[in-house]
């Protein structure tokens, strides 16, 4: 456990170090923020490193193995409806808890002066991800062509972009990008890989990857459709 903790700490520290160094250089050469502000930044950076380290350890130790196990067990139940329901439920639940989604929703609520509810936006994004995560697993089960699936999906996305009010389109695309975060991505990939590992003729590489990019289109489409309620 200590070796894993040390390894994760070094990985996170190396990832965050360029940001800390850049801010320190800006502080010395350009911005000259008050010392109190700089100390808060450094303290926050330490907390962020510790939090990310623990989060990644939790994902490695528990989330990924459980996701693969669930994905591998679902086909044994002999119910396609169960597979789709579980995919939607896990996609929805992880998106609701996704830090990037929470930050975006809070910023949108603040910028819109409360006209767009953060909670409503989170549920819309989560619903879109859940639906497309279910379709992604359906593709693993039946072996649909990913090229065809992406062509149809992005074609619909382009059409919706042309008819959606210009103020909603940027928000919709941001909604799609924030769902590929530290919680949602491992769960969707682990589910797909677990499912593909027990289905004859399926490949963990060709069937387990690419689905996250497909699933992230769901929130974009969901936000565009939800423009009638925003």
Q: Short summary of the structure?
A:
By secondary structure, this protein is mainly alpha-helical. It contains eleven helices and no strands.
Helix content: over 70%
Radius of gyration: 20 Å
Percent range for β-strand residues? under 5%
Helix-strand category: mainly alpha
List segments where confidence is low: pLDDT < 50 over at least 5 consecutive residues: none
DSSP, total strands: 0
Average pLDDT, rounded to a whole number, is 83
Number of structural units classed as domains: 2
**Beginning-to-end CA distance, first to last residue:** 47 Å
Helical stretch tally = 11
Outline: globular
How do the helices and strands follow one another from N- to C-terminus?
HHHHHHHHHHH
Major β-sheet annotation: none
What does this structure look like?
- The chain is built from 11 helices and no strands.
- The protein is an all-alpha fold.
- It has 2 domains: 62 residues, no CATH class; 150 residues, no CATH class.
- The chain is globular, with a radius of gyration of 20 Å.
- The termini are far apart.
- The model has no long low-confidence stretch (mean pLDDT 83).
Helix and strand arrangement:
Blueprint: H1 2-31, H2 35-73, H3 80-97, H4 99-111, H5 118-142, H6 146-163, H7 169-177, H8 184-198, H9 204-208, H10 211-215, H11 217-225
Helix pairs in contact: 1-2, 2-8, 3-5, 3-8, 4-5, 5-8, 5-11, 6-11, 7-11
